[in-house]
Amino acid sequence: MTKSVIVPTLALLLSSSFAFGQNPRKPVAKAALGSGKLAAIHVGGTRRYTPEEVIAASGLEIGATVTDTDFRKAGERLGQCGFFTDVSYSYSSLAAGIKLDIELADSDKLVPVHFENFVWFPDQELLARIHERLPLFKGQVPIGGTLSDQISDILQNLLVPLSLSGRVEYVRETNDPGGRVDGINFRVTGLNLTVQDVHFAGAGPDELPALNAAAQKLIGKDYSRSAVQAFATANLLPVYLERGFLKASMTDLQPKVVGDTADETQLEVQFVVTPGFSYKISEIKWGGNKTFSADKLQALVHAKSGDLANPSLLKSGLEAVQKLYGTRGYMRASIKPDAQLDEASKTVAYKIEVSEGEVFHLGDLDIQGLDPKTVDRLQEAWTLQEADPYDSSYPQRFFEQTVKLLSRDVTWTISIHEGINEEEKTVDVSLRYGIKPPS
Fold first, then answer.
1. Going from the N-terminus, what domains does the chain have, and what CATH number goes with each?
2. Which residue in 43, 102, 225, 416 has the fewest CB atoms around it within 10 Å?
3. Surface-to-core class of residue 278, CB atoms within 10 Å of its CB (0-12 exposed, 13-18 middle, 19+ buried)
């Protein structure tokens, strides 16, 4: 006796009302299995999972008495987990009992899992606990299916012995709203996790005072891994970057619980710092600039050969260059630095490429928030003409120079909006006046 069955995966199950009979590849019906001893299971097709892992996930056991229904349920489990795009099985009679053959096709649509604030367990322990319950779990999950819900239940049960009232939830992470999912992030909600202290391992004595001073902004804040990592990138790593440590890295370790009250769990956060080497600037070269000389542009970048490389300082200088081009109507000028590191000499050479683009001119001028007579006076005072290249610095200067035309009984504010018309190469300017409230 031999019988083959093709099991729909979750996507097909959803579209077929979970009815195996609607599978278009339904085999010709054969005599149903009554019951018998399961003597052997052969697993093929998968390169990601071992036969033992697949068998454990199927719920079947060698030596157990099985029926056709048991095989069908095992196929459903494998089909619904989301790890496979195709699941099929067949079975045949042997002298020792029944042999089951399972054929699988691995799904390539898996994403990593992250643990946002499970401060009571190291990540490796969480992964191991989940793997115990879900043998096919190896740190990644399918985007669809029910596996993420099963993991939430497992994590929720881990909180029970700790008498924690938090609720485990998960979110799909993406760097592109409406785009692809990059990961599944599990988190505990309903608990107050507060950063009580911050320590640094691997930090040198020259940088430690600056790190400790910057870390004070983290004390008392709610803990989440993503927030701590973002804080480190924005506030801590620059301590090293501005000193020339261009390859410095900072990793946050598992937070340590240092206090528990009825209202909050207090944590100690520790960062491991890997500074690397400090680099100096060997040279800065400019290319593509026609409107302004390299010397004029270089004067805005407060860095020169022999200085410690400081990406933050370079960035602010290039922003000043961008503004300079805006004063000549180059509203789409692009200034891109290319850093070439010399590991032997521990130096970096910067090639800054300028793409000036086309010149934009003044479009429409719109003044809001003032009475008609005052608007007329301001429009007469406006000297930038449509034939002139647009000057992005002019609106602010105009406000400062003409504020004397307004009532002096109040403090005026202005909001400047520039609408760039790519087709006509013009810039529409909207000046929105307001009154600053008394302090």
1. 2-106 (3.10.20.310), 110-189 (3.10.20.310), 193-274 (3.10.20.310), 280-355 (3.10.20.310), 361-435 (3.10.20.310)
2. 416
3. middle
Measure the CA–CA gap between 108 and 324, rounded to whole angstroms: 49
Chain mean position to CA 153: 25
Residues 392-415: tens digit of each pLDDT: 999 999 999 999 999 888 999 999
Lowest mean pLDDT among 4-13, 76-85, 161-170, 174-183: 4-13
Q: How is 181-235 classified by DSSP, letter by letter?
A: --EEEEEEES--EEEEEEEEES--TTTHHHHHHHHGGGTTSBP-HHHHHHHIIII
Q: Are 132 and 77 a contacting pair, CB within 8 Å? A: no
Whether residue 384 contacts residue 428, with contact meaning beta carbons closer than 8 Å, is answered with no
> Could you identify the residue written with the tokens 């005052």?
374
The lowest-confidence range among 138-152, 348-362, 421-435 is 138-152
pLDDT tens readout for residues 264-281: 899 999 999 999 999 999
Reduce the DSSP state of residue 327 to 3 states and report it: coil
